[in-house]
Amino acid sequence: MLALPPTTQPALPLLSTIARLLSSDRSFAARISDLFVLLREAVAFHDGRLVCWLQSAQASGLREQFYTPNGWQDAWNDELTRQVVQHGSAVRLTMPMRLLLNGDTPDPAGEVTYFGVPVLWNGRLWGVLELRAAGAGAISEPEQGFVSALLPLLAAAIAVEGGAGDVATLPLHAGELTAQQ
Predict the structure, then answer these.
(1) According to the 3-state scheme, what is the secondary structure of 90-108?
(2) Disulfide engineering: 126 pairs with which of 48, 73, 115, 119, CB 3.0-4.6 Å?
(3) Residue 85 in contact with residue 59, Cβ under 8 Å?
(4) Local structure of 115: helix, strand or coil
(5) Using 50, 70 and 90 to split pLDDT, how confident is the model at 103?
(6) What percent helix, strand, coil does the chain show, rounded to 5?
(7) Cβ 48 vs Cβ 68: under 8 Å
């Protein structure tokens, strides 16, 4: 078994906080918004998006999208989302900002790292979690490992929200969410 470096040990209480958040009785949109806020404690990223299929758990079904506030003005590149779905595994790319972002910015300077990972459980695709960050070295392997650890929790939250599970939710308010608990 792979030993965790000391820098990742504080991530365990954060993962526990995220588990409580995702199983709470708050609205799904509020839980995902707070998930992005908490995720910043373990992963350095600029903006994020969750694409999920609440009703069908199939990529061909009606999708819903949830975004981080204050993200880049440029739209998300849906071709990268399709690559994640088709590969069924994480995709991490670094490229010039002008190629990764699909927006109106004429010629933005610098590089952007894209990290997209499928939310899979029990052979079903529940969604795709995508993060974008400035710079070529963004979204390191330890950060990717943390994202991978939360995927089963996210799959369960999507399944319950879509009516695919009969799991009780916990009453929880935003003020109760701290990694120190």
Answers:
(1) CEEEEEEHHHHCCCCCCCC
(2) 119
(3) yes
(4) strand
(5) low
(6) 35, 20, 40
(7) yes
Q: How confident is the model at residue 132 (pLDDT cuts 50, 70, 90)?
A: very high
Planar angle of CA 164, 170, 171, nearest 5 degrees: 125
Burial of 113 (0-12, 13-18, 19+ CB in 10 A): buried
| Order of all β-strands in the sheet with 124-134 | 64-67, 47-52, 124-134, 111-121, 91-96
pTM of the model: 0.81
Look up residue 81 and give its two tokens: 């989302």
Phi, psi (rounded to 5 degrees) for 100: -80, -35
**Residue 69 burial by CB count (10 A; 0-12/13-18/19+): exposed, middle or buried?**
exposed
What angle in degrees, to the nearest 10, is found between the helix axes of 141-161 and 11-22?
20
**In angstroms, rounded to a whole number, what is the distance separating the alpha carbons of residues 94 and 106?**
19
- CA distance linking residue 109 with residue 52, whole number of Å: 31
Q: Read off the tokens for 152.
A: 């089963």
142-168 pLDDT, tens digit each: 999 999 999 999 999 999 988 765 444
